[in-house]
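Give me the fold.
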Amino acid sequence: MLVAATAAVVGCSSYKPEDSATPQFDLAAHCESREAILNERERPCNPDAALRRFARQSVIDFDRTMHAAKHGQVFLDPKEYSDVAHCGKPVVPGLIKLITNKNAYIGDAAWAALDEITNQRFGMHEVTPNPPDTVERAAAAEKYQKWWDENKTKSRTDWLVADIGLNDERGRAAIYELGYSGDRAAIPALKSLLGNRYQRPLAAVALAWIGDESAVPVLVDYYMASDSEPLRETGICEAYTLTGQTMDFNPKASPKERQRSINRWHRWYEQRVSAAVR
């Protein structure tokens, strides 16, 4: 249920392109602030309090709205839901119990939060006019309990790393969540995806979010070199946030101007790699 930006930057200011005829690109205006992500990572979690607040009317109303939503509609999670999702692994046992709550909307929301935290997909948890019935939720709770018994000694990063090789929605979600977590233990697994043509774009963004410069070549060659202006914007936003550099790259500039900046990015990265191995 969470929706987050794929490009982020903090403390950026606008800069002038090489050619005054080129439209100006303002990093601060075009790139979403990463400050919200960093604050979310650092926000404390009280699992017991979060679970108590979860069984409130705001979550019921939210889940009911989701079931009545039209395709493509996006809603912000209420704080009572996002607080539980933020807590992660510590709330899993409590959420498993809540799946069978007498209020079907609370049970359904608990099921959705478990899907988000664990990246598992037990049963057909889909947006339908009505929440899953008692039998469906009991079956899901049983499967989650079995999974938890087998995986509770592992970290959430371990859970997600096990899924990143899946070339489907679960695999993409795992990559995104690893980047969002900021856990540097995920770096080796994410770097292993940089040679995969399908997974490397998202893996590079995840690595950038964690703070690993191995993301730079993909941010440059896939994003900044793209024919798509939105992808070029994502590339420079992520690269600037990661490195503090721009190399005067302007996603609105001409192909020739952009290529000059891309060449500078290549030289900069090669120098960084050379310095690291000395």
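Residues 255-277 form the longest helix (23 residues).
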